[in-house]
Write a sequence for this structure.
């Protein structure tokens, strides 16, 4: 018996084809400036800090451990980039020096990637011409 | 290869008769310089020298003093030493740019062209692709760019690299195009690539994987020598924890795979690397 398609969906021969254009990995900042508390999560850090503070150890040891506890602070880099885009110059410069964002100066990465993509494709076409 | 300031380094240990990458490079049209990076603790270093024109021997113990290994073991059967010596090797050999490659590549394949995922064939003129990649690299301030790996395309067109390129392009492994004037160090005795793209990436090191062509390797642990011994000894359990130690806020260890599950690192990209953002947002 011949199979038929109840919902008339055409069977695609291109199911494994990818049609989305890959662009340079540049983040598009949102229009909204997030609240500063959205940028990071100190839950685990605070938990560790409380434990360290309760320890009966030398102050200089506590100082080190408290610094190390900061490694557990979770930063949301999308929110950070959004915050950057809506901040003034002073904050932006501080964020840049802390490597909280990477600025694509003169669109070097964006344009460079487009050129790379085009040249790669041209080379591919040349290689595979009959 | 047009650029005479460029060399392909093949990082190898303990298998002078199985440096697959050398023949793969030549077979697929790479005409530039090749140099093997071999350590002085390799008992087969003389065989390497006898078999290849250009071999750079380095002192592994000395290199071990220059970066954070993240443990107190003395077992140096790992690739990180060779990765880190490449910058010095390039300088002393008179090259500005290099690509560092593992020794077990079987082919370089087309993967993404004309905005589509493809499985069609192997690269014929590798020189051209490397030149295009090098031109891109030189035009930016990126620390390193890498080719994709076959494994990046598991899932075909809907694989992670293509469907989430903004995040997963920041994972850079295996083949690294670098410059002596943008030096950096890989960290951790093992899992050094993951440690580096997570921890150093977190602090602003910029590495990007290019999706157009991918290198194919022998299945891990199928080739004797190299890193195989250390992986067989510890599996991926200890390896994965190095990256958690370096980047505990965003790297975890979890069970992966359905059959023969194993513990493996898991990176939460949203919390790992700073975003690249257009200059249009920068206040003047």
């Amino acid at each position: 018996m011949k199979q038929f398609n109840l919902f008339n969906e055409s069977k695609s021969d291109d199911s494994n084809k990818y049609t989305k254009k890959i662009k340079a990995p540049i983040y598009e900042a949102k229009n909204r400036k997030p609240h500063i508390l959205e940028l990071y999560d100190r839950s685990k850090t605070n938990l560790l800090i409380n434990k360290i503070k309760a320890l009966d150890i030398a102050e200089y040891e506590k100082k080190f451990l408290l610094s190390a506890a900061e490694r557990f602070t979770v930063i949301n880099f999308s929110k950070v980039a959004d915050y950057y885009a809506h901040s003034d110059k002073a904050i932006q410069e501080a964020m840049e020096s802390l490597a909280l964002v990477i600025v694509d100066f003169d669109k070097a990465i964006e344009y460079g990637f487009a050129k790379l993509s085009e040249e790669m494709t041209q080379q591919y076409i040349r290689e595979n011409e009959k | 290869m047009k650029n005479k300031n460029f060399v392909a380094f093949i990082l190898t240990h303990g298998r002078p008769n199985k440096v697959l990458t050398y023949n793969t490079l030549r077979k697929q049209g790479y005409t530039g310089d090749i140099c093997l990076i071999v350590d002085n603790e390799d008992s087969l270093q003389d065989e390497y020298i006898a078999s290849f024109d250009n071999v750079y021997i380095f002192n592994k113990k000395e290199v071990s003093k220059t970066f954070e290994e993240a443990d107190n073991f003395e077992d140096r059967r790992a690739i990180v030493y060779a990765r880190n010596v490449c910058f010095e090797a390039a300088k002393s050999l008179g090259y500005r740019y290099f690509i560092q490659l593992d020794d077990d590549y079987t082919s370089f394949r087309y993967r993404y062209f004309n905005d589509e995922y493809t499985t069609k064939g192997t690269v014929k003129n590798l020189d051209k692709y490397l030149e295009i990649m090098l031109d891109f690299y030189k035009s930016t301030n990126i620390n390193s760019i890498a080719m994709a790996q076959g494994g990046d395309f598991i899932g075909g067109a809907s694989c992670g690299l293509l469907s989430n390129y903004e995040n997963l392009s920041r994972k850079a492994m295996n083949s690294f195009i670098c410059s002596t004037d943008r030096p950096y160090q890989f960290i951790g005795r093992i899992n050094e690539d993951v440690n580096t793209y997570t921890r150093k990436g977190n602090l602003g090191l910029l590495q990007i994987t290019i999706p157009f062509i991918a290198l194919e390797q022998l299945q891990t642990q199928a080739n004797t020598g190299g890193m195989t011994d250390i992986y067989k000894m510890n599996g991926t359990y200890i390896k994965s924890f190095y990256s958690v130690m370096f980047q505990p806020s965003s790297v975890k260890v979890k069970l992966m795979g359905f059959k023969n599950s194993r513990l493996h690192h898991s990176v939460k990209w949203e919390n790992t690397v700073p975003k690249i953002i257009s200059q249009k947002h920068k206040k003047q």
Q: What stands out?
A: Chain B is about 30% helix and 25% strand. The domain at 6-226 of chain B is CATH 3.90.550.10 (Spore Coat Polysaccharide Biosynthesis Protein SpsA; Chain A). The first strand of chain B starts at residue 6 and ends at 11. The two ends of chain B are 42 Å apart (CA to CA).
